[in-house]
Design goal:
Elements lengths: L1 H23 L2 H12 L4 H12 L7 H17 L2 E10 L2 E13 L3 E3 L1 E3 L10 E7 L19 E3 L10 H14 L4 E5 L22 E4 L1 H11 L5 E11 L3 E10 L7 E7 L9 H20 L7 E7 L7 H9 L7 E6 L7 E5 L7 H7 L10 E3 L9 H5 L4 E6 L4 H4 L12 H21 L9 H10 L3 H11 L1
Parallel strand pairs: 5-6, 6-7, 7-8, 11-12, 11-13, 13-16, 14-15
Antiparallel strand pairs: 1-10, 2-3, 2-9, 4-8, 5-9, 10-12, 14-16
Helix pairs in contact: 2-12, 3-7, 4-7, 7-12, 9-12
The structure holds zinc ion.
Length: about 475
């Protein structure tokens, strides 16, 4: 008898634990998700449309509209519910044309130069003396600078006093414009005369021409300036239109079986057009779309509604994701978590949880599901530089895919961000990580109400030095 009772007990306890296991961590399903991602069925073809067919997808352009239409069609084809566009206002649009620069005195040398985004041009060719203001010895940006009227001024925006370099960049641009400078030159930190472009902090319009100059050419200017004044010519052809227009985010859902809330997974689709916006952020868009396809293919019925979001206007200062947060303000209490990919297809490490160390315990359990992909890492570092940020500022747990840097920083925002830079195998692995993370979050997050209160949000921003960049961007959001 005793033996029988014991056996029954063991049998029951085994079944019960198996039941629990199946509820919380279905390893067979996780394996299926990983295998589906590794087939790379759709990612490469989506990426190819975004890069080779549509091309540079600058916010406000016809390519951007074409992209939102393409993504909407794709969501519908996959069978995603509630697929729709959500518009927001773009206050200004910007286009660039040719950009050239030459040293004309004391030597003759062509320079490699290109405009930053949402900056005015030079209105034809200008001739300017060069002033080197790579100072910051006193670490304070004055209201005005003396003796730079009409000059092309070299600066090196660096992070200091809790202010990221994007913030010092706009502070410098404002001070230089007030002081009558003709242009601000920023040496690129990329190799091989590659340039960099960005509009972060400049939208809706920069106060003067801001020009990326090849590192090698900046070094040449420094060397000549040691013994002789330098004169250059610049001819930067940009146009800015003050006519407001509509820009679109693309949204779709897999409805949850319970009314417990929503998990949002997203990526921005706008890009720069010097390259093809392949890593930034065609790779993110392709991965998110593939997660949607895999969930439908495997007929996964999540408890939470899984919302797929493709944002525009990220490069102008998170315009699309900010517009989303405003439009859906009443639903944010039910938004349990946000996952964003925007660091390129690289070897995955896990997730950045942007200051939410309070969730460490539950997240290490959630992300345990990523162990077959060796991506269980959690970084508490916080940033305000992609579409998780407007959600983070609202106190919603917001995570970004954390990857090895690889060659991302070299190609990012430069002419070399092209289709061939995206490793299809790594993109498949990153897709698997995102899909498994969403699945596992869905299993675990039901009982957790994670939204921070107002004072907690402020404290998180302050603790992580994000206040100044949040303030800078809120200027564009007004
Ligand atoms: Zn990006």
């Amino acid at each position: 008898m005793i033996t029988t009772i014991k056996l029954t007990f063991i049998f029951i306890s085994l079944s019960f634990s198996q039941f629990l296991y199946a509820q919380v961590n279905d390893t067979t399903l996780i394996q299926k998700i990983i295998s589906a991602a590794k087939t790379q069925e759709e990612t490469s073809s989506i990426l190819r449309v975004l890069t080779d067919s549509i091309g540079g997808r600058i916010t406000g352009t016809s390519q951007s509209k074409e992209t939102s239409a393409f993504l909407l069609k794709k969501l519908k084809e996959i069978g995603i519910d509630n697929a729709h566009l959500e518009d927001f206002e773009l206050k200004t649009s910007w286009a660039h044309n040719s950009a050239s620069g030459r040293i004309i005195n004391p030597t003759h040398q062509f320079m490699v130069v290109g405009s930053y985004g949402w900056c005015p041009g030079t209105k034809g060719e200008i001739t300017a003396k060069v002033v080197d203001l790579r100072f910051f010895k006193n670490k304070k940006i004055p209201e005005r600078f003396e003796g730079i009227m009409g000059a092309a001024v070299i600066v090196e925006p660096i992070a200091f006093e809790d202010q990221p370099s994007q913030v010092t960049r706009i502070l410098l641009a404002n001070a230089l414009a007030k002081s009558g400078a003709a242009a601000m030159l920023i040496p690129s930190d990329k190799p091989n005369r590659l340039l960099y472009i960005s509009a972060f902090g400049f939208y809706p319009m920069a106060p003067l021409p801001v020009i990326s100059i090849a590192k090698e050419d900046a070094l040449l200017l420094h060397r000549i300036l040691e013994y002789h004044p330098v004169t250059i010519t610049l001819n930067i052809n940009n146009s800015i239109s003050n006519k407001a227009s509509k820009e679109f985010n693309v949204i779709g859902d897999i409805p949850g079986t319970d009314t417990v809330g929503t998990i949002l997974i997203g990526a921005h689709f706008d890009s720069w057009d010097y390259g093809q916006g392949a890593q930034d952020n065609g790779s993110g868009v392709a991965a998110i779309m593939e997660v949607a396809r895999i969930f439908k293919q495997l007929d996964i019925k999540p408890k939470h509604t899984i919302r797929f979001a493709f944002f525009s206007g990220e490069e102008q200062g998170l315009l699309g994701s900010h517009a989303y947060v405003i439009k859906h303000a009443n639903e944010l209490d039910k938004l349990k978590s946000v996952l964003i990919m925007d660091d390129g297809a690289q070897v995955p490490k896990g997730f950045m949880i942007h200051g939410r160390s309070d969730l460490d315990n539950i997240l290490s359990r959630v992300f345990q599901a990523l162990s077959p992909l060796e991506a269980t890492g959690i970084s508490a570092d916080a940033s305000f530089d992609t579409d998780h940020a407007p959600f983070l500022a609202e106190g919603i747990p917001s995570f970004t895919l954390w990857v090895n840097e690889g060659d991302y920083d070299i190609n990012h925002h430069s002419i070399t961000d092209t289709y061939d830079k995206v490793d299809a195998g790594l993109l498949a692995t990153d897709t698997a990580v995102l899909a498994v993370a969403v699945y596992s979050l869905d299993q675990h997050l039901k009982a957790v109400n994670n939204r921070l209160f107002q004072d907690e949000r402020k404290a998180l921003m302050k603790k992580n030095g994000l206040e100044s960049v949040q303030k800078m961007l809120s200027r564009s959001w007004r």
